[in-house]
Amino acid sequence: MKTISINGSSRTEVGKKATNALRNAGLVPCNLYGVENEAKSFSVTTDGLRKLVYTPDIHVVDLTIDGKTVKAIMKEIQFHPVKDTILHVDFYQVTEEKPIVMAVPVKLEGLADGVRAGGKLVQVQRYLKVKAVYTAIPEILTVDVTSLGLGKSIKVGDLAYEGLELVSAKESLVASVKTTRASAAAAAAAKK
Question: Where are the alpha helices (DSSP H) in the chain?
Answer without folding.
Answer: 16-24, 46-53, 113-116, 181-191
